[in-house]
Every structure is written in C-alpha cells, then in structure tokens.
Amino acid sequence: MTAVKFALALLLVFPAAFFMGGTVPAIAQSVIRNPEQLGRTGAMLYAVNTLGAALGVGFAAFALIPSLGFTATYSLSLLLSVTVGAVAWRLPEINATAPAGKAPEKPAPVPITERLAIGALCFVSGFVMLALEVVWTRVFAQVHENSVYSYAVILIVVLLGLAAGAGISSVVARFVTRPWVALGAMVVAGGGLLVLGPAMLMRVTEGLRPVDSIEPWGDYVRGLFNTGFRGVGFVVIALGTVFPFLMKLAERGDAAPGWKLGKLLAINTAGAIAGALLCGFVMLPHWGMWGTLRALAAVYLAVALLLPLGWGKPGILVRAGGVAFLVLAFTALDPTGLPVAGGNQGKDEGKVLQAWEGSDGTVTVIERPSGHRVIKVNGGYGLGSTEAYLEQTYQATIPLHLFPETESVFFLGLGTGISAGASLDERFPHVRRVLSCELIPEVVDAAKKWIPSEMTGGVFDDPRSTIVVEDGRHLLRASGEKFDMINSDLFLPYRRGAGSLYSLGHFQVAASRLNEGGVFVQWLPLYQITDFEFGVIARTMLEAFGEVTMWRNNFQPGMEKVALIGRRTPSPFPVPPAGKRDAMLAAVDGLAWQATAPDMFRVAAASTPFLYAGNLTESAELFRNYPINTDDRPVIEYQTPITFRKVAENDKVIWCVGPHLTAWIDRLLAACPPEKDPVWAGHPAECKHLVRAGAAFHKTMVRRALGDTASLDAEWEVFLREWRAGAR
Prior knowledge:
It contains 22 helices and twelve strands. With about 725 residues, it is of the alpha/beta class. The chain has three domains: about 20-90 and about 110-330, no CATH class; about 345-490, Rossmann fold (3-Layer(aba) Sandwich), CATH 3.40.50; about 500-510 and about 525-728, no CATH class. A hairpin with a 5-residue loop joins strand 2 and strand 3. Helix 4 crosses helix 9 (about 255-305) and helix 5 runs parallel beside helix 8 (about 240-250). The model has no long low-confidence stretch (mean pLDDT about 90).
C-alpha cells in the first residue's frame, strides 16, 4: 500500500510540479543580461522565490485552509498561477545581449574537476537540507503538540532561513574574489553549526520538554516561531548560503543562464528527494535523530575537505576548520547519547524501558514509579497504560455486551493491545475474527514486549486475531471487508492527520463496511476536546448514520470518555440480561455519597443501561448549528488548537468533561427521555431506571469533585431511588 500511495501522489502532483519547476530558470533566462550576473541575480531570484514559498505556507495553514477549506484554497492557488502566467505572457520579450560596442567574448570553459565539485555539492546540499527538515520535524515533535500549525511553523522557519541564506549569498557574490575559498568557508560554517545543533536544540527545548501550558493563541504561535528560529534558524541560514552561491561558480562557460540555473536546481532537487527518502526510511530507523544529525554534519564537512580550495593559507584554514568540527562531532560534541524523548519538569516520568525511532515516530515505553507501564509516541502523547487497564478493556467489552452476537470486530488503532485483547475474552463466545490496525509498527513491538500478556489477552497469539500495520482509514477503505463491529480508538483531535478520522468521508466509509445490523463505535477523549469539537463530531456522525447514541466509559470527573455508537438504521438495542436483584440492592444499602468513588462501578452485561447517556439522533436539533467536519473543510484539525485556548481564557473547565458533559447528558435526556427513546422500546422499565441512575451518579461525582455540596444530597437520593427501581 505504501507503493500504491506513492504512485498515486506522484500521479497527482508530478504534472503541475514539473511545470512549476521550470518557472525560476525561465525567469533567470529572461532577466539575466550578462552571464556574470548569474551569481548575484540568480541567488536573489532564488531568495525571493523561497520567501514566496514561506508566505504561501503561512497563508495556507493559518488563514486560507481554516477559512475556505482545501478546494477553495486550491482554486485560489490555481487562479494566482494563471494570473502570473497571463502577466508573463503580456510582458515584452527581453533578449540577453552583450554591451553595445563590444564583441562578445567566448568565456573560458569550467574545468571538469570544478564541474564535478559543483554538481556533487549541489546534490549534497539538497540531500542534507531535506534530510534535516525530516529530522528537525521529528525533534520538535517531541516538544510541540504536533498540530498542523506546529508542522507549518517549522517549514516556514526553514524556508525563511533558506531565503535569508540566498540573500546573503547574492551579496557575497558581488564582492568575492576567491569564490571557491568563500564557498568552502560557507560549507564549514554550516557544518560547524550542524555539529553544535543538537546541543542548541536541547537547550532551546529545555531537554525536549513537552509543551504543556495552555496560553493565548497568539502567544502560542509566537512561541513556536521563537523556538524554531532559536533552535534551527541560524543553521538553516548558514546552510542556505551554499546552493545559491554555486551559481557564482557556474558563471563561466557559454551555456545560457536559464540552462545553468535549471541544471543546478534539478541536481539540488534530486538530492533533496534522496535525502527525504533515505532519512525517513533508513537513517532515522537505524541511527535515530541524533545519530542522523551527526551523520549529516559529517557528510557536509567531508565534502568541504574535498573542494578544490587550493593549498594557500585560506584553503588550509578552511580545511583545518572542517577537520576540527568533524573531530568534535565524534568526540566532545557527539550527540548520540542525548535523550530521544523528554519529560515534564517537576514530574517523575519514570524509567524508559525501551525506545524506538522509526519512520512514523519515536515510541517509548516508560515504567512509572508505581510499576505501571505507558506507551508514548513522540514525547508527550500517551497511547495507553496498564494503570488504565479496566477502562481500556471497557472500550471493547461495553459495545460487545450491548451486541453480544457480534462475530467480527475491526479495531482502528491497537495501542497497548488491551482493548483488542479484551474482545477475545471467553465472555464473548461468538467472536470469530478480530482485525487490529495500527499505524506505527514500533507500537506493536512495544505492546507485545512490554504490556503483560495477561492484560493483552490473546491479541498476539490467538488464531482469531490478526494485526495489520497500516493507516486504518486507508485499510478500511481499500480492503472492502465488512465487519459486525468497527471499534475506533481515542484519537487526539488536534494532532496532524487525526482530524480526518472524525470526518464525514471516513464515517461514511465505515458505515459502508458494516454488515447488516453492524455498529460503528467511535470513542472520544472528552478531556482533549471542548464542547465545540464534541458538537462537531456528533453532528458529523449524525450525517453518516441513521442512529447515533452515546455511552459512558467511566464516571471519573475530568477524565471522562464516551462512545458514540452509530448504526445505519435505527432499531431497539438487544435486551440485556437481568442482574442479581439482591446483590444490586445490597450494594447501595446504607451507602452514603461520602463513601463512594467514581471507579466503584464495574461493567457487566446486566448494568450496561447505567452507562447510557442519550440518543443523539432523537436530539439532533441540539447539533444543527455545528459545522460538519469534512476532508475538504477540516474543522476539527484546524480549529481545535485555537478553540481550547480561547475557552481557557474564560472558563476554568476547558474540556467537555465534568459539568460540561453532565449538562450535555441532561439536554439529551430532556430532549428524548428513556421512556420515549426508541432504542429502549421493548425493554423492561428497570433498564430505563438504570439510565437515570447513571446520570444521577455521574452528577454526584462531578459535584463532589467541584466541592459543590449544596444539591449533592438531592442528586444522591435520585441515584439511590432509580438504582433500586432498576434492580431486577
């Protein structure tokens, strides 16, 4: 599938990119009158073009896509491109001619050794620059929240640095008398800063400390740029002087300026392609981000030593500097011992049991002081831990208790493997096939090696279980296989790419992959979304499914998770088995709210109505004013990083948890009371009493957590009354 995706991307992007790649050489051919102007004018053209690229990224990421969506932004780009073409078509033709009164002189050809050196350095410059961008993105992924904005900022910083470097190169080209020595000094300066780079990055990021403060949006963006420029800005500027300065060295010879510049750009771009591919698929998995940075610095400095600098004093000094930095890269400034993931200051994050640096991210397994283990991806993002074992099993057992006849389950996201493993429990004898899809292969390795097998069930060895490493959305769309249940894991909405898993297109594909009577289960981390994102996701699911209902995973204020369960056609839920009446009554006999805890409830087939939180389809009017999250208008991915910061300015409770969630549940139950809810049609009255008991218990826990005891006794009495009425 990787090959297929690469081929499709190439098919879609290559034709336009091919013609766009010819524009700068064409401009150079048009405006450079004298071959000796290639160094300064060509470098300045490259600087202006790269500055335009930085502005394009900024406008697209921060303004156009959030406001207009992808299609409108793409259309606007097409309009701008056509406008540029129309203007160029109307410009008068400019012919490069020699100054009047002078016969053109045939320039001396460039020696073969110099041509080879120019070509080699041109390739290496592109290789190192794009490889560095991949590595730097990985480094900052350990620190930033990894939204589309943090990725855009790093790209903008790199482009601005390259533009500044090209501008400097243009100025130097006007005055330099020994261009090879000047070039050698530029290469050594860039390589030296690369050697110093890891130490600079560790200092700027405070030891790869994940950003955990919630500050106003403007301050956050300024902080991203500040960290980016301080961490890599000077390195990029130094490296950015090299490729444009090669135009100065290519001035000799009788080839046209546009041909020379086009050839240099082609070689540089070929190196960039190779650098991105090798870094992402080979260097990072084998050497890690610090080892890769050291290798790239070594390559750059080694090339500097091979340049035709001559053996005069300046050439010797340049070579000596290159040797010194090369030695430092493998001795005093060797970065390979630096940590690959950081922790929050003041918190005992525990011991790193193992770390993997793969193509898709840095995966670490951390053992807490309590002995519990957590799997993290790229610094601060936890996929799950053994401490939350019960809640992770509930992600599988709750929907399976609701639909006990389920035979095939697709898990979109493996994580720790605890949820998928729970579906293979003997309590669910009808389950015949469990397919788990995980994007990052190292996550599978981490779960298999470090999560105890008694917690992961048979997910790694049961013949009914299959694990596939692939993008879950792509696999679901491409395979065509249908399932009785699709169970979609918790996804952090503002992480780059995760928002598409809450899109209408994805939900529609999921609906089409369900067998008759099948269910789609989307778990939501309410402690990572605001009321706005909850409303958007709910509205989007309502567009894809004929029925959507909501169910709690737990009653822990501030850490609530819910499942939105979608079915293509509405129908009553299967009637749960009767509970043990005497045991249910005994559980609350003499019980006071002061002696309760949110985790005192245990999921069982008979008590699933206690987790019910409302019928969204019957309450659809509550969501009419929320936008739909589509692949074209990615509201979740682009809006969430802004929304929760705005909420934080006015509300102590930022996320859709605690009082926000209980308010939603009250509105849902008021719009569609259990007695009128079609999903409970044909169920005994006790089930409906348990629904109200769950709502009252949840509000009791929330009000106790907030210290609001004024009406706590009344809510507790509602819980006791409804619980006793629900005992059967």
